[in-house]
Specification:
The protein has helices at about 5-20, 40-50, 50-100, 105-150. The protein has about 150 residues and is mainly α. It has one domain (about 5-150). Helix 1 (about 5-20) packs across helix 2 and helix 3 packs antiparallel against helix 4 (about 105-150). The chain is elongated and about 90 Å long.
Length: about 150
């Protein structure tokens, strides 16, 4: 290997080290056991030291807060959706009052009611799954937060 190849390799390594020193991972870089997930993040931790761990404490805390606030955001969204449904129902009632011949038949209304009920059942199952996932993720974050905090001290 000649000198020019060595200079190129040294330059590439230098750029990689600067990148690892200056960059931050996108989000939490720890797995559920508190181990650093990837090779780049392991490099960052080695080069950045305590700064990496302070950043991870912030990332873990922010993600945990986001999951803690999720039920409130979902409840707010559900309230808005219910309000929109009430408004839509009122518009439909007004329309059918003015155009009674356009009103759906009893069979169509039953079919619509059954369809709505099926959607509600599916959404309840989705909500149970999401809640289970949310609680699991929060438990994981609560487990790794003290690990990251201990690396800062």
């Amino acid at each position: 290997m000649n000198k020019s190849h060595m200079k190129i390799i040294a330059g590439v390594v230098g750029v990689a080290l600067v990148y690892l020193f200056l960059s931050s991972p996108d989000g939490v870089a720890l797995d559920g056991k508190g181990n650093i997930k990837g090779m780049f993040d392991q490099g960052r931790a080695g080069i950045q030291g305590e700064r990496f761990w302070r950043n991870q404490v912030k990332e873990i805390s922010a993600e945990l807060q986001m999951w803690l606030e999720q039920p409130r955001r979902e409840a707010e969204s559900n309230r808005e959706l219910k309000q929109m449904n009430r408004e839509f129902d009122q518009i439909n009632q007004d329309f059918y009052r003015e155009n009674p011949d356009m009103r759906p038949s009893a069979a169509e209304r039953r079919a619509e009611a059954m369809s709505i009920r099926a959607e509600q059942i599916e959404m309840a199952e989705h909500d149970r799954f999401f809640q289970k996932m949310r609680l699991s993720k929060m438990a994981e974050l609560r487990k790794i937060l003290p690990i990251a905090k201990n690396k800062v001290m």
